[in-house]
UniProtKB/TrEMBL annotation:
InterPro entries: Nuclease_put_TT1808, Restrct_endonuc-II-like, Uma2. It comes from the Bacteria. Gene3D superfamilies: tt1808, chain A. Pfam families: Uma2. Residues 19-141 form the Putative restriction endonuclease domain. This is Putative restriction endonuclease domain-containing protein.
Amino acid sequence: MTVSDLDRLRSRLGRLEDLFPGCHTEMVGGSLMRNPVRPFPGRTITRLRADLEARPPSGWSLVTGVAFVFDGENEFCPGLAVIPAEAEAENSGSYQPGLIEFVAGVVSPGSIRRDHDVKPLRYASRGIADHLVLDPPRGRVVTM
């Protein structure tokens, strides 16, 4: 995928996301997926972020609300990701998944299969070994 391909993909998703205010939007397997934004996932990620920021690893930054473009059919917006500080300093709305050192997401009722079956395979395919899935519907935390 070229840079211009990524730019077209980002702009297309950006326009579509604006059509669904109040929803968390991602592209998974070529389909646009949206879930209503709920307080619990945001609060959970805020608490996890506060805990991780209390002891930040040198040279790394925590990001939330940004997209990671895997290919033309998959763009994920994890609840929290750890990427190199110099990449975070670019202040971009999207990044390459190869930058991710650690990723965490909170499962919502409509995203259980994607969060447990689809995303772990994509993250693993890019060498992202540290993947935390916080799953309130099932009352558990899973490390992938």
